[in-house]
Amino acid sequence: MPRLTLALVALSAALAGGLAATLLTRDAAPDEAAIRSIVETVLAERPAPATAEPAPLSAEAINPLIEDYLMSDPRILERMSTALDIELRTAQAAETLAALETYRTQIYEDADNIILGNPEGDVTLVEMFDYNCSFCRNALPDLAALLDEDPNLRVILKEFPILSQESVAAARVGVVVARADVDYWDFHETLFTGRGQVTGQTALAAAAELGLNPVSVELDMQAASVTEAIQRSYALAQALNITGTPTYIIGDELIPGAIGLEELRGRIANMRACGSTQCDG
Q1: Does residue 234 carry a pLDDT above 50?
Q2: I need a labelling partner for 165 at 20 to 30 A (CA). Which of 31, 144, 222, 277 fits?
Q3: 256 forms bridges with which residues in the sheet?
Q4: pTM to 2 decimal places
């Protein structure tokens, strides 16, 4: 039997259905091009083979495998927790950085910002505080030291009364004092170094010591503009997810809590060195 015919027979045996019938019913032996054309036609017409559905895995089958894996490497949970913590911190830092940029005007240019130190300083430290915050009280010497030792530091204080209604009353007085032509820092120190709870009356007495008329201050503290100043602080705190005092803002970092003088110094130095509170290397 000619070799081409043997090839056709073998091909017809290998392929089922249409291709074999097509080849064996031809009158003359097809050439190579014809065979290729027929093969391509039949393969194109054949249905795709069905793929088997994987059998569902039951909890009874999976749970022992998971347990064996975890028992063989129990510290994997610790590594997972660490990795998750890093991921969350990274995401939170990115969100905070974006928020600080979005609310830059509200942070640094609010009309009722209390400016201390060098108004043209090359680094700005922002503190949101409550007059009845014990941590703010303990951190007062840190702020005083920075103002005393760093002639290029600008400090912005923002009233953020969250601890009591008396804190709100004292903050209202604070807004009025900050707008007046007196030394606000003396008022600030007086309230934070005094004994007991700071109240509206305590704040009025401190304002009087600076030469302000307490009756006029008490009238002015009820003004709508004073309410609006405090409301702007609340709105900013909500936008930045600030929930406690003191909270500092230095450059690209929002710092919750009193972190101490050396930590503040370090972040200020880093801002000057690399433009961020955390310098690489």
Answers
A1: yes
A2: 144
A3: 247
A4: 0.72
